[in-house]
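Exam revision sheet. Question 4 asks you to relate a sequence to its structure. Input first:
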Amino acid sequence: MTSAEILTLTVTETEKGARLDKVLATLLPAISRSRLKELTLAGAVAIDGAAAADPSRKMRAGETITLAIPAAVAPDPVGEDLPLEIVHEDADLIVVNKPAGLVVHPSAGHETGTLVNALIHHCGASLSGINGVMRPGIVHRLDKDTSGLLVVAKNDAAHKALADQFADHGRTGPLERLYRAICWGVPRHPQGSIDAAIARSTINREKMAVVAEDKGRFAITHYRVLDVLNGADGKPVASLIECALETGRTHQIRVHMAHIGHPLLGDETYGAGFRTKMNLLTPAARAALEAMGRQALHAGSLGFEHGRTGEFLSFESPLPQDFQALLDAFPGTRRAEQR
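Answer key, structure tokens:
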């Protein structure tokens, strides 16, 4: 947008007596409440031509609300011409297949070279603005060394629709997310759920940890064993598993699998104590794991409802080459894809 977008709304009998912020949220469901409050406090709202900066003002039937949404400003991160594997793109959103090693969002130590920098460059003018800034709307993230599918919003309406689905995590809504991982050992049960709160570690602030329920944010991971992987002696040494998240906490799968004694292969943060188990692998599997140089975790399936069209979109990402090479290096294992 090159100038402010002016929206005019009329208060009906249904909204009579309600607060201004609630009326705006009801009449403009595509804009988040926090953004509407921000605009109101900034003087962008008028009632019957008079400025109205009080979100708690009670409304009367027949009043006219005018909302001026300013043009989106340039983002702080700059666009960079970086390679992107685009799985789907339309006017509202973009789905990308993130490679391992790519940071999603700029942060201390990663100010450039991120997915956000790449998306700003790629999307250009098609970014109409998230909360007034011409930037992609990140509603979920993957760790730097986790590969797989990410959906990103291009505008406020798409951002809100996606954020609502990710906040629900598929418990009652349409969101679907599945991960593939390789963990040390074989879980006692072929499928199960890990229900354990997660918070930042008090010992190492760069790590997350399972904590008492009242000390962290509740987190639930569902897992299913797909294949049992053998070591050099022909005995089970690792498992290919599928994980579904009921919540989306930082490092959740990695923390939860380590918590039950099955950290992911290649995870130096949560599986450092299992390094000696590499001696149980065949030389080929050990070489493949060393070449991989990251945790064996891939976001392979993503499904969600398109906020504007209502269509359910579903995407699959095949295992990346390094992950597949590690799987292929285990002897005598029947792949899940062959079942």
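Marking note for examiners. DSSP finds seven helices and 16 strands in the chain.
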